[in-house]
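Q: Hi! First time doing this. I have a protein sequence and I read that you can turn it into a structure. Is that right? Here it is:
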Amino acid sequence: MMSSFRQSYSLLLTYFLIFNSAPMTDKKKTLDRIDRKLLEILQKNGRISNVELAERVALSPTPCLERVRRLEREGYIKSYVALADGNKLKANTLAFIQVLLTNTSTANLKAFNELMKGITEVESCHMVAGGFDYLLKIRCTDMQHYQRFLGEKLATIPLVSQTHTYVVIEEVKAETAIPVRADVQ
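A: Yes, that's right. Below is the predicted 3D structure, encoded as structure tokens:
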């Protein structure tokens, strides 16, 4: 009788493990509470050890690592980066520049996009809707560097019709983490 119980238990356990150990990508279509917590923690500290990360989300290390790898594979995690201090790197001047193009044809937009990707002072470039076409975030060592950037790089681009610059006096908040909403799929 005991061996019959063991066989039944063993069979039941085998079925449970088979049906509950399928890759998470097959089972899950939405992020659960643990996935969201992993993303929140990793956005604040991408160098956290897997063991510490697992403890913080109440998982053992192996399932935690599997979840992180799935989040990477599915594109929720794009990369891990070190955020440098602009002041320590002598990039003390931060500015936002509104750029108006002469013409917003598809070819001009593509050309401007490619040009911006190659300019080291441009930290980010966003095509926007409204009274101008692009919003640039740039970093320069000082105002003289900014003046050279504007006069020798940005203003020499034939596609650029007009610019308006806003120099940052104080960076009040510069958050890189994206809030992870409960309804994210």
